[in-house]
């Protein structure tokens, strides 16, 4: 299915910020020691500047995020791509302000504070790429080096 028309950067920015605010799940790509890939869906909250994730500190994804400090996120959909590369920091369950943790739980329907093996992971985007079809690919970057590009 082809989406109608090529979107300009301003429209793609609006679409992307809407998706970040309203979508609930994101694909999380990480790599283990020796480069073994892991790809899992996790629920998230967009704070306006960061993506907040939660998972077990001891599972492969939690270990990889802690060790590498880098992550690639992808919102669902191969015909409406949103790829985010960023730096990631693990924070304890009690280190996230209660109002933000409450917002995470309300948005995702998942309460990690009830699971002592879990932690939050803050992802600060470095790059954001967005496209629907090949005709939007050349102008796909909305963020580079952690800064939104002009719309």
TrEMBL record:
Report the InterPro entries cross-referenced here. Answer: Pyridox_Oxase_N, Split_barrel_FMN-bd
Give start and end of each Pyridoxamine 5'-phosphate oxidase N-terminal domain: 26-131
Locate the coiled-coil region(s) and give their ranges: none
Q: What is this protein called?
A: Pyridoxamine 5'-phosphate oxidase N-terminal domain-containing protein
């Amino acid at each position: 299915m082809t989406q109608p028309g090529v979107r300009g950067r301003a429209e793609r920015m609006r679409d992307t910020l809407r998706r970040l605010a309203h979508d609930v799940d994101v694909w999380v790509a990480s790599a283990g020691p020796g480069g073994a890939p892991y790809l899992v869906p996790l629920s998230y909250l967009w704070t306006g500047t960061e993506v907040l994730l939660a998972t077990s500190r001891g599972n492969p994804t939690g270990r990889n995020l802690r060790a590498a400090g880098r992550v690639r996120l992808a919102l669902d959909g191969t015909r409406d791509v949103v790829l985010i590369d960023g730096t990631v920091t693990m924070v304890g369950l009690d280190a996230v302000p209660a109002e933000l943790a409450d917002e995470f739980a309300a948005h995702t329907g998942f309460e990690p504070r009830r699971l002592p093996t879990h932690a939050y992971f803050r992802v600060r985007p470095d790059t954001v790429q967005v496209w629907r079809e090949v005709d939007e690919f050349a102008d796909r970057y909305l963020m580079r080096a952690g800064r939104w590009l002009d719309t």
